[in-house]
Amino acid sequence: MKTKNRKYQLVIILVLGVYLYYLVYRFRYTINPDALILSLSFFYADVHGFLSMSLFSFQLWNPLERKAPPPIPGLPVDIYIPTYNEDIPIIRKTVLGCTNIKYPHKTYILDDGNRPELATKAAEWGCGYITRKERLHAKAGNLNNALRQTDGEFVAIFDTDCVPQPDFLDKTIGYFRNPKLAFVQTPHNYYNVDSFQFRVNTKKEKFWIEQNLFYRLIMPGRDYWDSTFFAGTAAIFRKKALRDVGGFATGSITEDFHTTINLYSHGWKGIYHNEVLSNELAAKDIKNYHVQQLRWAEGNLSMFFKCNPLFKKGLTIPQRICFFSTIFGWLFGFPKLIYLITPILAVFFGISPLRSFDFPFIWRCLFFLVVLIAGFEIVTRGYGKIFYCECFVTMNFFVVMKAAFRSILGLLGLKSIFKVTGKGRDQSVRIFNIMPQLVIGLFCFCGVIWGGLKLYYEISSGWIGNVSIIFWNGVNGLLIFSVVEKITKPYYKRKDFRFIGAVPVHYAVEGSNGFPDGLGVTRDINECGISLITFSSLPLDKKISLSLYLDKTILRCKAAVLFTHKTKSRGGNIFMHGMKFDDVSVEETDLINLYCFNTILPRFRYKFGKKPSRISRMFFQLSGQKYLRRHVRKKITLPVVIQNDDNPLIAVTNDVSMSGLSFTSYVPLENGAAVNLKVTTPFGTVDAEGEIRQAREIVAGHSYFIGARFTKLFNHAENILLDVTGGK
Amino acid sequence: MDMVKFIRNKWFLIGFSVFYLGTVWGFFRTFYHKEILLQKLYKGSDTPDALQVMTLYKKMMKTAPKRGNFHSFYRLAKILARIERKKEVIKILNRLIKTVPEDGELRLWLAVELHNQGRYREAEKHFAALLRNRKDASHAPIHNSMEGASYAQIRKERKGQ
């Protein structure tokens, strides 16, 4: 057992101990005989929470960190891209990612939509194209059809929107030295941060998405118990194992979970390699998100009746527990509903879920909540944020309840339908999508006012109880308000997501002497255009010649300015231009796409990646673990030209101070090397000599964090730096 | 019409909030009409209007007191006491004590009222109950002050009878 996990295990034991004590107290002293049904329902919700927490803790007991073994050369690998009705540009990106995988392989598009234009494109892109006449058993049927027609011994599967990185096979194929290994699963990494599922803070450079808790923590935890499961995409299989279990399971709409249970019960193994090796689109809007959640919930819950892991032969006890927890996890809708409506019933009908809201209960409840919240934040190591998690539970409780009923109705013959999650252009949210939340939210706020008036008129006895109920209603109301606010928030309606990343760009206005040329930095980029930040304005009616410094490659193209937004910062002018590329060739589009997926995204992940919460940081400090702050300087992105040999390196700063700067480079620079630095700022150019003080690899192979110290400042560089940094 | 855009509109939200608050307030006033009136009478410094209080009393006595609305009945008893309607006070207190038998203060009040009305047998029963619960610390001040003296007086008077 790793000592690193021991402190988390202690926290888990503490949380479960306190939870158990609280439940015993609740059962012995707080069941209200005057409102037995409500009181017992409330108690059930607490017991459900304890079971969920226990199963969750079991899975998080000792997450594994695997190091990829070296690849086995010469294995025949097929890559499958199952598709049904997705847009061809989305498929193109996935194909591009697949064809750029370094390990030798064959790529196949499995088109269940039977589209002739896709067949033509597949030939153009150099991939195989497999289709079938009848769309039997949806995705599982599609994959099984391809398994019969291709001859590779190993099969990697990528959904239409899942773009692999070039080293996907290099990092996963080595595990197959183990002859009993059936599959290797890798994390699903969602990249379209404009989806409503993301919580992004550009100032603090951090983002959060619900699914990371599962893919970056729970799955490695399950790997320890030998219970990793196939998550539908970003995985590689041994074909022999699939053949052994009759191919991908077709009896359910969650073929992944079903196939996993079949494989384990036949004695095969699965491994989780916890390194992002592919990037995919998260559902952009609530409608498609709920379609996805409903399918997962219904499919997984129906497994309880179709292929119950508790009774399936050939599984170990930890496997039974882990797979059961997958099913049980989708029942969270019922306790959530109880937690939402109990305070409403209490305030309007004067019925109390507890015998009395007295001080002995209040202090125990508060202590329990503090331990639970802090414990959750600590053991989830920055991936779980209690407020955000609660928001998602509130967002989905109705859908998963619907799924539970549908899976029960499935026993009576109601057929489940595999609905594909839409990943393209977002659909407008309809009020119907959030009706349950809206209704309950209105009642919650009504409960707050009602309770407040009751308190004012001293209508009900026991002000502690009244205040507690008002507070409870208020918390529920705020949660629902936050959910509705996030879901209905209007986003900029760009069809294709733009990757957030700073790329140095040289710009020049065509056929005009009045406008200066210079260096700028992108704020975001995709194959259609960029948001360019410059320190001088660009005309709307002229073509702009751009040179994009995509590391070693310089992409030259023309673009039109669609809009300009001017801001002032400490007296300097900053212009943000929305630009659209003109006549970019297919090769150039591919180049931009590959750069976005293989360079910008990993850098973004590094910069915005997991950051522990305040509670976790406190815990780290108390337990003697150092938490390193990455930046202490002023975070400003400015184009910088670094000259140390003959070839100048053009990069973008991460941060700047009076004494130095840091930037991301695609080549490693040696510590102690002397360099000339030219930084373009809104106040002029800083000319300086510097020395490399820090150089570390942040993304394997192509991204290095370089820290440089100014040794000599020329001309007015000091004054300019004063303006830029505000004297820091 | 885009309903989602509509519900995010600032003016809609302001208008809806005002309407919503007004509706909740209106419902509350209708639903708790008696309780609001009671509070007004209870907090008022003038002698309450006897007719109004008796009408309220008749309405409230149609329902049995519960722990949840204990305070309303208690207040009604206090108001009735202010207008010297002792019989009605005793009636209410008798009902209340069945709902909250553990309330020593209430029992003492009932016992004293019964005693003052010359209903000694009934009063004795409640004083005896209070003495039985003497060990309960929360009742200690009540026991130590009035109760002993009152009970002693009852015994004396009964002997005299």
Brief sketch in words of this structure:
The complex is a heterodimer of chains A (728) and B (161). Chain A is built from 19 helices and 24 strands.
Number of strand segments of chain A: 24
How many structural domains in the coordinates of chain B?
1
Compute the gyration radius of chain A: what is it? 28 Å
CATH-defined architecture of chain B: Alpha Horseshoe
Percent range of helical residues of chain A: 40-55%
H and E string of chain B: HHHHHHHHH
CATH class of chain B: Mainly Alpha
Strand content of chain B: under 5%
For the record, the count of structural domains of chain A works out to 4
Classify the secondary structure makeup of chain A into a structural class. alpha+beta
The portion of residues assigned to helices of chain B is: over 70%
CATH third-tier fold name of chain B: Serine Threonine Protein Phosphatase 5, Tetratricopeptide repeat
Structural class assignment of chain B: mainly alpha
List low-confidence stretches of chain B: none
Q: How many E strands of chain B?
A: 0
Largest interface (C-beta under 8 Å): A-B, 22 and 22 residues
The gross shape of chain A turns out to be: globular
Oligomer: heterodimer
Strand order of the largest sheet of chain A: 3-2-1-4-9-6-10
Rounded to the nearest angstrom, the distance between the terminal CA atoms of chain B is 86 Å
Task: Supply Rg of chain B.
Answer: 23 Å
Features:
heterodimer; A: 728 residues; alpha+beta; Spore Coat Polysaccharide Biosynthesis Protein SpsA, Chain A; Thrombin, subunit H; 4 domains; 7-stranded mixed β-sheet; 6-stranded antiparallel β-barrel; 24 strands; 42% helix; B: 161 residues; mainly alpha; Serine Threonine Protein Phosphatase 5, Tetratricopeptide repeat; 76% helix; elongated
How is this structure best described in words?
The complex is a heterodimer of chains A (728) and B (161). Chain A is α+β, with helices and mostly antiparallel strands and 728 residues long. Chain A folds into four domains: 215 residues, no CATH class; 206 residues, Alpha-Beta Complex (Spore Coat Polysaccharide Biosynthesis Protein SpsA, Chain A); 108 residues, Thrombin, subunit H, CATH 2.40.10.220; 92 residues, predicted glycosyltransferase like domains (Thrombin, subunit H). In chain A, 42% of the residues lie in helices and 22% in strands. In chain A, the strands form five sheets. A seven-stranded mixed beta sheet of chain A has the order 3-2-1-4-9-6-10, with helices on both faces. Chain A has a six-stranded antiparallel beta barrel with strand order 13-14-15-18-17-16. In chain A, strand 2, helix 4 and strand 3 form a beta-alpha-beta unit. In chain A, helix 15 runs antiparallel to helix 16. The longest helix of chain A is centred in the N-terminal third of the chain and has 27 residues. Chain A is globular. With 161 residues, chain B is an all-alpha fold. Chain B has a single domain, classed as Serine Threonine Protein Phosphatase 5, Tetratricopeptide repeat, CATH 1.25.40. Helix content of chain B is 76%, strand content 0%. Chain B contains nine helices and no strands. In chain B, helix 3 crosses helix 5, helix 4 packs antiparallel against helix 5 and helix 5 runs antiparallel to helix 6. Chain B is elongated and about 85 Å long. The mean pLDDT of chain B is 83.
